[in-house]
Design brief:
The protein is of the alpha+beta class and 151 residues long. It has 2 domains: 12-74, no CATH class; 81-150, no CATH class. 52% of the residues lie in helices and 24% in strands. The protein contains 4 helices and 4 strands. The protein has helices at 12-32, 36-45, 50-74, 128-150; strands at residues 80-93, 99-113, 117-118, 122-126. Strands 1, 2, 3 and 4 form a 4-stranded antiparallel sheet that branches. The termini are far apart.
């Protein structure tokens, strides 16, 4: 989009915001299985002119089936962590053969999606400080959830 000569006079930040807004609108319309009248009403509320609304709706209608297939392949529910494994990795030297002696943790999250079963594991490497930060945030989230269920 940024390379399009017709758009060279528009501030790149504004252009990115417009692109994100259009993508969000299309995604939400597909997710909600919105019909053309609902999309038109929403775009009219955003003060778009009739010609642009008609053009948007025509393009949306042409690509609606492909969009629904794509959204269906993504799934409807977030991944669920079923297990966690970790191991300590100790880097003694780097690529330049300098001694580093840096410990790090390799963490693997076993995940599954209720829509489609299991997914590839999510793996990442982190330092002890990053792992402690993650554990702290998970404890905060658990406490927050516990407080919310007690209300």
């Amino acid at each position: 989009i940024l390379d399009d000569p017709d758009l060279k006079d528009i501030d790149p930040t504004v252009l990115k915001h417009c692109h994100a807004a259009a993508a969000t609108c299309i995604l939400e319309a597909g997710k909600q299985k919105a019909d053309i009248s609902a999309i038109s009403a929403c775009l009219e509320d955003c003060k778009l002119d009739k010609e642009r609304i008609d053009q948007f709706c025509t393009e949306y209608q042409k690509n609606k089936d492909a969009l629904e297939i794509l959204l269906g392949s993504i799934g409807r529910s977030p991944l669920h962590i079923t297990d966690v494994s970790w191991r300590l990795e100790y880097q003694i030297k780097n690529n330049q053969l300098h001694k580093t002696y840096q410990p790090s943790y390799l963490v693997t999250l076993n995940v599954e999606n209720s829509d489609s079963g299991s997914h590839p594991d999510v793996s990442f490497s982190c330092t002890m400080e990053q792992l402690q930060d993650l554990v702290g945030k998970l404890k905060e989230a658990a406490k927050s959830l516990e407080r919310a269920t007690q209300m």
